């Protein structure tokens, strides 16, 4: 299986540059994972696909303003930091642009010296480990100096930072939003809860994998970077209870899928756990916990497109994407949604 097997043509004008005013007004392409049949709806119709006893699993990570613009001490050369992973209180793994200016010992400042950083070492793929220096509270300084790390395909300025957060975001630590959740409003979540659908939250902090393309020709040779996840005992208990009563586990976003499949045993039961996951899901993978998936439309040849292809079949997904292009759906982070529908997982 090659990376090129997951390529599709996408006109640039279909890449959504700004979010809709009403989160739930996005279009929704409903895909039956067994037959490949496609229906066109709106996201606020999602309730018609849920039923009492189901369990909706959502990632409550919160995006930090992880992009910092500064300069090199002494020369004044401009630099961009993208914070990827917090290693301890003041030490982070970061992507730097331009990287050549960032050898161990190099020092940089941001906000006229309000925040300073020193490169400690260079690691795999050219990323850096840096230590920050500042007076005050880190979160307040980052909120003042940092910008939301919008993906490079979004060229428009984001007026409201909260539109790149889910309404249920809570645990800070992501370098990118779990974008499938951007379509939910508080009113829609309340309606879903009133239906008797359990809503459960876990955490996966989106990191480097979101920004890293698949460079290997053979899919199996791609190496995923690890991301931090956490699932509580209460969440695990509710998910397992839903399984036992015959309810479906409906993951909101690929990050929720990766977390659930990381902590699930062969019978689909999940356990309370935290740690790092580098799970890579592509066609041939047998799902243990997840039955259905709410997701966005993903980049060609990406690991996320491979994951949804594992759930619904590559041919079904590529056909659905072809239809979405023809119907002028909006793509990627601020774009429309897809619901991959099915019954309780037959692999368990």
Walkthrough of the structure:
This protein is of the alpha/beta class. It is 18% helix and 27% strand. The radius of gyration is 20 Å and the shape is globular. The chain contains 6 helices and 17 strands. The protein folds into 2 domains: 3-63 and 160-341, 3-Layer(aba) Sandwich (QueA-like); 67-145, QueA-like (Thrombin, subunit H, Beta Barrel). The strands form 3 sheets. Strands 2-1-17-16-14-3-12-13-15 form a 9-stranded mixed β-sheet. Strands 5-6-7-10-9-8 form a 6-stranded antiparallel β-barrel. Strands 4-11 form a two-stranded parallel sheet. Helix 5 crosses helix 6. A hairpin with a 5-residue loop joins strand 5 and strand 6 (78-86).
Task: Describe what is shown at a glance.
The protein has 348 residues and is of the alpha/beta class.
Q: Key terms for this structure?
A:
single chain; 348 residues; alpha/beta; QueA-like; Thrombin, subunit H; 2 domains; nine-stranded mixed beta sheet; 18% helix
Question: What string gives the helices and strands in order?
Answer: EEEEEEEEEEHEHEEHEHEEHHE
CATH superfamily of the largest domain: QueA-like
Write down the CATH class of the largest domain: Alpha Beta
Structural class: alpha/beta
Instruction: Characterize the largest beta sheet: strand count, sense, and whether it forms a barrel.
Output: 9 strands, mixed
Q: If you consult CATH, what is the topology of the largest domain?
A: QueA-like
* Number of separate strands: 17
Looking at the structure, what is the overall shape?
globular
Separation of the first and last Cα atoms: 25 Å
Q: Helicity level, as a percent range?
A: 10-25%
Q: Give the overall pLDDT as a whole number.
A: 95
Tally of separate domains: 2
The number of helical elements comes to: 6
What portion of residues belong to β-strands? 25-35%
């Amino acid at each position: 299986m090659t990376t090129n097997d997951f390529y599709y043509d996408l006109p640039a004008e279909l890449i959504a540059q700004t979010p809709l005013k009403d989160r739930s007004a996005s279009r929704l392409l409903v895909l039956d994972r067994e037959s490949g049949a496609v229906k066109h709806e709106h996201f606020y119709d999602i309730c018609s696909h849920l039923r009492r006893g189901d369990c909706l699993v959502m990632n409550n990570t919160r995006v930090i303003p992880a992009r910092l613009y500064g300069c090199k001490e002494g020369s004044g050369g401009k630099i961009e930091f993208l914070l990827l992973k917090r290693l301890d209180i003041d030490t982070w793994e970061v992507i730097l642009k331009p990287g050549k200016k960032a050898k161990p010992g190099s020092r940089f400042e941001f906000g006229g010296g309000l925040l300073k950083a020193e490169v400690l070492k260079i690691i795999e793929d050219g990323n850096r480990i840096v230590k920050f220096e500042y007076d005050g509270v880190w979160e307040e300084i980052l909120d003042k100096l940092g910008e939301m790390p919008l993906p490079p395909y979004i060229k428009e300025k984001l007026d409201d930072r909260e539109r790149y957060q889910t309404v249920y975001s809570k645990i800070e630590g992501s370098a990118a939003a779990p974008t499938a959740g951007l379509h939910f409003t508080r009113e829609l979540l309340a309606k879903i809860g009133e239906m008797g659908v359990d809503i459960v939250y876990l955490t996966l902090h989106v990191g480097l994998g979101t920004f890293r393309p698949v460079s290997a020709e053979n899919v199996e040779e791609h190496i995923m970077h690890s991301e931090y996840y956490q699932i509580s005992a209460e969440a695990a208990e509710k998910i397992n209870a839903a399984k036992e009563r015959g309810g479906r586990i409906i993951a909101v976003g690929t990050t929720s899928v990766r977390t659930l499949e990381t902590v699930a045993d062969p019978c689909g039961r999940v356990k309370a756990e935290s740690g790092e996951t580098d799970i890579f899901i592509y066609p041939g993978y047998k799902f243990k916990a997840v039955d259905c998936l709410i997701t966005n439309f993903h980049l060609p040849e990406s690991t996320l497109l491979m994951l949804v292809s594992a759930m619904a079949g590559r041919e079904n997904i590529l056909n659905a994407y072809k239809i979405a292009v023809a119907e002028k759906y909006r793509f990627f982070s601020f774009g429309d949604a897809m619901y991959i529908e099915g019954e309780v997982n037959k692999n368990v």
